[in-house]
Design a protein that fits this description.
Blueprint: E1 2-3, E2 6-7, H1 18-30, H2 34-48, H3 69-86, H4 104-112
Antiparallel strand pairs: 1-2
Length: 119
């Protein structure tokens, strides 16, 4: 809203992602100096995307996940390996009956199901 030669806006967003938390914390640190940073950021964005300055342009912002699917799978495999290495190893004769055993096929099936989460 423009009034008396000044623009006044209100900005609000949730903190559901690491990116949003970083931005929110950063803007909070700026106190009354947020305007200068917002002006600079939007100016740089418009220089990179001049089509956005057109009045009829449609805004489509796609946020990429912090980790690629490959990186996420690698991280999950690392966590599983760490957890499995902490479990005491037994041979088949001393293994507890009906104890679930996680094998490579199980891990692969779990990683394939990441698609259910849009990853």
């Amino acid at each position: 809203m423009k009034k008396d030669g000044k623009y006044r806006f209100s900005l609000q967003f949730d903190d559901e992602t690491e990116e949003k938390r970083k931005v929110g914390d950063f803007l909070e640190q700026l106190g009354n100096r947020k305007s200068a940073v917002i002006i600079l950021a939007v100016t740089e964005y418009l220089q990179t995307h001049p089509e956005m300055a057109k009045q009829d342009s449609k805004i489509h912002i796609q946020i990429e996940p912090s980790l690629s699917k490959t990186e996420l799978e690698k991280l999950i495999r690392t966590i599983i390996d760490e957890k499995l290495s902490a479990v005491p190893h037994t041979n088949e004769s001393t293994e507890i009956e009906n104890e679930p055993v996680l094998n490579d096929a199980d891990i692969e099936e779990m990683l394939q199901n990441l698609d259910l989460f849009g990853i």
